[in-house]
Design a protein that fits this description.
The complex is a heterodimer. By secondary structure, chain A is mainly β. Chain A is about 0% helix and about 50% strand. Chain A is globular. The chains are: A mainly beta, B mainly beta. The interface of A and B includes residues 42, 49, 99 and 106 of A.
Chain lengths: ~120, ~120
């Protein structure tokens, strides 16, 4: 079965320190991977995606993610965390099969808490 | 460009009633997907519409249905509401021309449904 795992329910980091939010996937073939962020009482906001090409993907608000095929991972990173980055982060995968579909499979989410 | 809009933002219904939620995609987007978000089950795919046709469906009972209009606006309907249907319902739109496999989905703010 196609799946995405976010092994940490919560990540705590001090403001100014680098942050990493982990994501691993299990998908047949070459996956299409996405990161979204959700602020309280809001919808999901797109951060970045990996389709093909360079394994390091840069996205919005200084976030980046590294695709690692051998480790089946797509970790989200930021060199210097801000208090305003505190939110719920979701990793998602779109399986590269099944014809034309935009269906996303989401991880369980990781709550990022940045302390001032 | 205006983002994805969803109406209403909040709804309170009682068991056994039915409800209709509305979604207006970003101008020019032809694919609309619906997701249910709950604390217990996380984000789950409901269905996807493209050019007024349902092209993918998640694992939900037949009480959940949807449709898409010629202007790409979409509605979803839940009949015979159950307590477990209480959730945040998110709509997402994307361009989805052709295979659409690399399109990014942009989410609306969601409709918070509470079933009493």
């Amino acid at each position: 079965a196609q799946s995405v795992a976010q092994p940490e329910d919560q990540v705590n980091v001090a403001e100014g320190n680098p942050l990493t939010v982990k994501c691993t996937y299990s998908v047949s073939g070459n996956p299409y991977l996405f990161w979204y962020v959700q602020y309280p009482n809001r919808g999901l906001q797109f951060l970045l995606k990996y389709i093909t090409g360079d394994n390091l993907v840069k996205g919005s608000y200084g976030f980046e993610a590294e695709f690692n095929k051998s480790q089946t991972s797509f970790h989200l990173k930021k060199p210097s965390a801000l208090v305003s980055d505190s939110a719920l982060y979701f990793c998602a995968v779109r399986p590269p099969y099944g014809g034309a579909t935009n269906k996303l499979i989401f991880g369980t989410g990781t709550l990022l808490a940045v302390q001032p | 460009k205006a983002g994805v809009t969803q109406t209403p933002r909040y709804l309170i219904k009682t068991r056994g009633q039915q409800v209709t939620l509305s979604c207006s995609p970003i101008s020019g987007h032809r694919s609309v997907s619906w997701y249910q978000q709950t604390p217990g089950q996380g984000l789950q795919f409901l269905f996807e519409y493209f050019s007024e046709t349902q092209r993918n469906k998640g694992n939900f009972p037949g009480r959940f249905s949807g449709r898409q209009f010629s202007n790409s606006r979409s509605e979803m309907n839940v009949s015979t509401l159950e307590l477990g249907d209480s959730a945040l319902y998110l709509c997402a739109s994307s361009l989805a021309g052709g295979q659409g496999i690399t399109d990014t989905q942009y989410f609306g703010p969601g409709t918070r449904l509470t079933v009493l």
